[in-house]
Each structure stands twice: as C-alpha cells, then as structure tokens.
Amino acid sequence: MFKKRSTWAIPYVIFMALFVVLPLLLIAFYAFTDGTGHFTVKNLMNFFTDGKFLNSFFVSLEVALENTLICLAIGYPVAMILASKDLNKSAVTALLFILPMWINALMRTMATAEIFNAFGIQLGKGTLLFGMAYDYLPFMIYPIYNILNKMDASYAEAAADLGAKPATVFLKVTLPLSMPGIISGVMMVFMPTVSTFAISEILTNNTIQLFGSVIQEQFYNMMWNQGAALALVMLIIIGLTTVFSSGKEDETQGGLI
User: Fold this and answer.
1) CA torsion angle for 69, 70, 71, 75 (degrees, to 10)?
2) How many CB atoms lie under 10 A from the CB of residue 84?
3) Cα–Cα distance between 144 and 126 in angstroms, integer?
4) CA dist 122 → 44, 64, 125 (Å)
5) 21 by DSSP, 3-state: which?
C-alpha cells in the first residue's frame, strides 16, 4: 500500500480539501445567499452599486500601485547590488534585509506608527506608503535578486564586447532577462497590498480604509453574506491577475530561450 506514490499524496489531498476547497465553497455559498439561506445576487451587485465599496476598492488599487512602484524603484537597484560579483559581503547585506522579517508584521507596523507619533508626524497616506514599502520591500528584492544572481554574465559581456554602452546593456540585456523576477516581485507586493487591512488601520488611524478593511468590517459586524461576496470579488480579481501575469511571464521566458 505504502509503496505507491499516490498513497503519500492522500494527506495533502485531505489538507487541501479541508483548508482550501471547503473554505472557498463556504465563501461562494454565503456570497450567493441571504441571511435566510435563499439564493441571491444582491450581495455581489452591492459591490458595483455601493459607493463605499467601490471607493475603497479603487483606493486600494491606487495604494497598491504606488507601493509596488516604490518597492520596484528601491528593490531593483538593491537586488543588482546584492547580485554584483564585486560585492564580497552580499550574504551579510542580504541578511540585513531578512532581519526585519523575523519580527511579526503587526509588531513592525505598530512600532513604525509609534516612531511617527514620537516625531510628531501626522499619520496619513505618506506614513501608510512608508509602512507598506517597509513591510513588502523584501518580497520585491529577492525574486529579482534570485534571477540576477543566476543570470549568465556572458550575455552582458558579449553585448559590451560588441560596443554596447552600460545603459544599453542594461536596457537590452539585463532588464529583459530579469523580467520574470520583476513580475514575481510585483505580484508578491501588489496582491497583499490590495487585500491588507491591519497596516492601513494602524498607520492611518483608520482614516484611509482599504478594501481589506471593508471586508473585515463586514465580518466583524456579522454581515457574513456581504463580507463573503466582497471576499469572492477579491479572490476573482486576484485569480485573474495571477493567470494574466503567469501568461506574461511564460511569454517573457519563451522569448529569451
């Protein structure tokens, strides 16, 4: 019995069924039913008709886009430095970016808010973006770093030997080859930012309500059906974005082979 490889997959199948498939089915059930258990699409339609839901959703997209761009602008040069063959202490430098991840994200966020309060800095969108970038920057750095670190240096050397300037080598060789890492980093930063709620509540005193906060508010107020519908909308958007980005990543890799 235990000699079959399929047998060893049974615990994973059970785990997936209980903690992945079943919760998703429950979300779908609550999303398409009312308080009495009858079928309805009103919960989903409220997302498109309620100004509060749409406003928080678009604010979340705006904040997520800005945070992703900030992390990319900072993370790509850092990843290049870490991947540089001239940096003899790259492991030590990489450790400095890992250290904050050893602390719980909520504790880091609360500590960041206390620092702003100590310096008399008013909490708002600026402090929110700072905290977001601080929390998610490592998720942008390491996918890019892994790609750059494994990149064959002969491509850039060949381009330089053919007379290409450093800027041209970067734009024509390094950047295209690192696109899979960029796409992975963008996904790992953008998606959690859209769905987060604790960071925005702490770093803005809940003056900026992201979509994750609205979903959390529905469940907190025992509005399970509406909360499930909003969560389902978020899941659909994340799923479509993941599929789209995976296709783009495959096209990028295919074009480089």
Assistant:
1) 100
2) 12
3) 26
4) 36, 21, 10
5) helix
* DSSP structure class, residue 103: S
- Per-10-residue mean pLDDT for the chain, 257 residues long? 72 92 94 92 93 93 95 93 68 72 86 93 94 92 90 85 88 91 93 88 90 92 94 89 67 49
In degrees and rounded to multiples of 5, residue 33 shows phi and psi of: -135, 160
- Cβ atoms of 140 and 189 closer than 8 Å: yes
> What's the token pair of residue 42?
């009103």
Q: Which two tokens stand for residue 249?
A: 């990543």
Extract the tokens encoding 37. 């258990």
CB atoms within 10 A of CB 190: 24
Instruction: Determine the Cα–Cα distance for residues 215 and 221; give it in Å rounded to an integer.
Output: 10
At 151, give phi and psi (nearest 5°): -70, 135
Sequence-ordered alpha helix ranges (H) in the chain: 5-8, 10-16, 22-31, 42-49, 51-83, 90-98, 105-118, 125-150, 153-161, 166-169, 175-177, 179-195, 198-204, 211-220, 224-256
**SS3 call for 247:** helix
What's the CA angle centered on 215, arms 104 and 184, to 5 degrees? 55
Q: Return the DSSP state at 123.
A: P
